[in-house]
Amino acid sequence: MASFMQPDDSNDRVASIPRDLPMLPLRNTVAYPFSVLPLVVGIPRSVKLIEDALQGNRLIGLVSMKDGSIEEPLPGQVYEIGTVAMIHRVVRAPDNTLQVVVQGLERLKVEYWLGAEPYLRAHISLAPDIVPQDVELEALERSLRELAQEVIALAPNMPEDAGKFLDQVQDPRYLAYLISANSRLEVAEGQKILEMDNVKDKFRALMVHLTREKEVLTLGQKIQSEAREEMDKAQREYYLRQQLRAIQKELGEADESQVAADDYRKKIEDAGLPEEAKKEALRELKRLEGMPPQAAEHSVIKTYLDWLIELPWNKLSEDQLDIVHARQVLDEDHYDLQEVKDRILEFLAVRKLVQERGVRAEPGEEEKVSEAMGAILCFVGPPGVGKTSLGQSIARALGRKFTRMSLGGMRDEAEIRGHRRTYIGALPGRIIQAIKRASTRNPVFMLDEVDKIGNDWRGDPSSALLEVLDPAQNHAFRDHYLDVDFDLSDVIFITTANTLETIPPPLRDRMEIIQLDGYTEYEKIKIAQGFLVPRQVKANGLREGEVTFSEEALRKTVQDYTREAGVRNLERQIGTICRKSAVKIAAGEVQTIAVTPEIVREYLKRERFESEASEAIEIPGIATGLAVTAVGGDILFIEATRMRGKGGLTLTGQLGDVMRESAQIAHSYVRSKAQALGVNADIFEQTDVHIHVPAGAVPKDGPSAGITMVTAMASLFSGRPVRSDVGMTGEVTLRGRVLPIGGVKMKVLAAHRAGLTTVILPKRNERDLEDLPDDVRQAMTFVPVDRIDEALAVALLPVEIKEPEALAASNGRQRIEELGMLNAE
To answer: pLDDT (tens digit, 9 = 90+) per residue, 26-78?
Structure first.
């Protein structure tokens, strides 16, 4: 309790209090009459105030500050009701602050301020409390005293004799200020009590505060009692459980939890865990043993131990390193794809020699050896060319388990690395889950659609794959859930993608890219004969020989009912023919069916595709270009027309920025070469040009259509039609140079499928022709060009035109008349 002076001791001093006093502001403190208050004074002006008071009568005024953050408050920033105090003792500390002990004498009221320099000074008047001598005051005093005794009994830090001291106080004012000084009052609330003139009002305010304090203390004791009971209960259960275990041990009986713990310990020993994983498993098992089965974390630890035990830490499939057998398996499952097959056989040969000859990595060469043993293959190509099935063939050739995971649309990094065990329902990532399903540490692991990974606020899965697909560091892959290293170096990872552009460069750098381009018509027929037809015959319940396909029937199916780089739609059409044949065989109408082109037309109805290049181009202004799409190569027609205008250029067909720039370059080039093309240069100022690239609903972009646009506009203005059997690709500059482009193989295959016989391509792409199948190279003519003039000489029909504008107009009128006759018919 705060120290207090008996009121009778200060009567003489109160009588001698002067009316002008220095005023000491108090921060976060209220000074009451009769109280003994220790103060620490450090502000220079307050230090001077104390020093001057010591030289005089030692009397000062104490007033509380309205805002405790103000360093040197002014008169309006302190309360005007305070306490006159006598300085009893002053001690100077080593840091030059003063430790002052003061004693409250009487309430004061500031009449007016005398100044703020060198410290606050005011003219005051004494304001003694009003103490009415009546029954109500006596009743309030008794009630307050009883309530204070109850609070003292509940308060944990109050001394035992505080209640006895309270009983000895007889003066009402002394009682009010004693309780106020020892209650947990805020400054504003304590100041409010100090400013009350009547002691009855002080008693009532203190009773309200003490009643609330009593409720808080009672509730706090109840909470502590309940917590203590829960703790005692848990300790009692623990001791009883330990005693029960001891009794069961003496009787030769073991509880279920101990049996489970012993079972886990045996499984951990038999699982062949690495040192780190074993240490973590035993640590978690120790926690499990000291935990009741009803605990929330009991099942979490059991699940974690189950994952650690069931993972194939040391289970490896034995590789079949027979090169002849592997080649046979690959040839059985896939036609051609020689580059892929050679790479797989190289992998097997290296692995066989390393194992047989015991090759060991020199210090610092471990990374190179690991890359040779665990290369990451990436199959890139259009849909339906056999990327996923190649992974299954590799696994069969090696004698390994096969597992796959689709990455398309994945946006959560935790799908790769797992969730931490702090989350409810946490699980390992899909990499570890797939390894567990495979039950071996060295499966063939296919990651499909690696080019379609997304990212958002949940992380970037492609960045998480950097560790997985790096042979130099995936030997210590750390899943967030397991939180121990798992060796992925023996896994053969194979990724698939349709395009390389959307794969992040760091991820692409870790993979060995193997391009799978589209198939030629000849290859599709061979694949259908060797793989697709037997598979669909079996899948539709037919026996061998009941349905046979002639080569002409397969060719018609390829040409008229499918247009794709792969063979997925071709297999669907063959399946349709087999199902319709099964209906007739099941009905007893026929016993065998030999599928001919006529039966294909009957079963598959009207033809879905028609070779666009088969129609002769008679109108100037149309040229055939070659492009690469997400599903392989394709041909596209670029149409140009002109009308009277002011030299404008209109572009349609959902063209991207690069393709629009190619059209503007083509327009500028043709205008600059008007004289060489036999065109009047003035005609461009009176003519608007419109270029359209069908189909209008498909977005297109890229620079490789530049040569086609120049040819189309040169044909339009010169009146010379473009050869209908010629396809072209290449980027064009303003100087007329033809620059190299990509995707030559897929573009040439598309031209071959469309029936084109001649392809114009940049001279610097000539080396790409070596990748083409022999039958395509023999069936087509390739014209490498370095300048656009060379391309125009080949593409435009060699027609002598003296008046190109007139002839172009007449050709246009002739074509319109022909179309009118067709419509009339």
So the answer is: 988 899 898 888 999 888 889 889 888 988 888 999 999 988 888 888 888 89
One-letter identity of residue 574 = I
Give every CB contact of residue 113 below 8 A, 6+ residues apart in sequence: 75, 120, 121, 122, 123
3-state DSSP assignment of residue 796: strand
Of the listed 393, 704, 718, 724, which one is catalytic?
704
Residues 6+ apart with CB under 8 A from 762: 729, 730, 731, 738, 739, 740, 741, 784, 785, 786
Give which of 623, 625, 804, 647 is closest to 713, Cα–Cα.
Answer: 623
pTM of this structure: 0.56
Q: What integer pLDDT is reported at residue 83 of this predicted model?
A: 92
- For the question of residue 286 being annotated catalytic, the response is no
Of 633, 557, 553, give the one whose Cα is nearest residue 596. 553
Which among 756, 731, 727, 753 is positioned nearest to 742, based on CA atoms?
A: 731
Q: Is the peptide bond prior to 118 cis by the omega test (within 30 degrees of 0)?
A: yes
Question: 189 and 209 in contact (C-beta within 8 Å)?
Answer: yes
* Cα dist from 144 to 140, 166, 169, 273, 520, whole Å: 6, 11, 12, 73, 105
- pLDDT attached to residue 8: 52
Q: Which residues contact 123 (CB under 8 A, 6 or more apart)?
A: 19, 20, 110, 111, 112, 113, 114
Q: Rounded to whole angstroms, how far apart are CA atoms 710 and 728?
A: 11
First to last CA, the chain: 118
Residue in 636, 649, 632 with CA at minimum distance from that of residue 713: 649
CA dist 508 and 473 (Å) reads 16
CB atoms within 10 A of CB 405: 17
CA-based nearest residue to 808, from 721, 708, 723: 721
- The number of C-alpha atoms within 13 Å of 395 and in the hemisphere containing its C-beta is 22
Q: Is 362 exposed, middle or buried (0-12, 13-18, 19+ CB in 10 A)?
A: exposed
- Residue 11: per-residue pLDDT: 58
| Burial degree of 32 (CB within 10 A; 0-12, 13-18, 19+) | buried
Q: Which one, of 780, 698, 704, 789, lies nearest residue 744 by Cα? A: 704
Instruction: Please state, in angstroms and as integers, the Cα–Cα distance from residue 603 to each residue in 579, 584, 597, following that order.
Output: 10, 12, 10
Can you tell me the distance from the alpha carbon of 455 to that of 412, in angstroms, rounded to the nearest whole number? 7
CA nearest to 711, candidates 665, 765, 670, 764: 670
> Is-contact 167 179, C-beta < 8 A?
no
In terms of Cβ atoms closer than 10 Å to its own Cβ (0-12, 13-18, 19+), residue 776 is: buried
The conformational region for residue 80 under phi > 0 = left, psi -120 to 50 = alpha, else beta, is alpha
Compute CA distances 625 → 123, 510, 747, 759, 783, whole Å.
Answer: 104, 35, 9, 9, 14
Active-site residue (options: 387, 524, 556, 747): 747
Residues of the chain with confidence (pLDDT) below 50 = 9, 361, 363-364, 366-370, 372, 612-614, 801-825
Catalytic (active site) residue 584? no
DSSP 8-state secondary structure symbol assigned to residue 519: P
Question: Are the C-beta atoms of residues 557 and 573 closer than 8 Å to each other?
Answer: yes
Sign of the torsion formed by the C-alpha atoms of 230, 236, 239 and 245: negative
- Per-residue pLDDT, 435: 92
CA-to-CA distance for 212 and 189, rounded, in angstroms? 14
Locate 437 and state its tokens.
Answer: 């399903």
d(Cα 18, Cα 355) in Å, to the nearest integer? Answer: 108
Nearest to 609 by CA among 563, 565, 554: 563
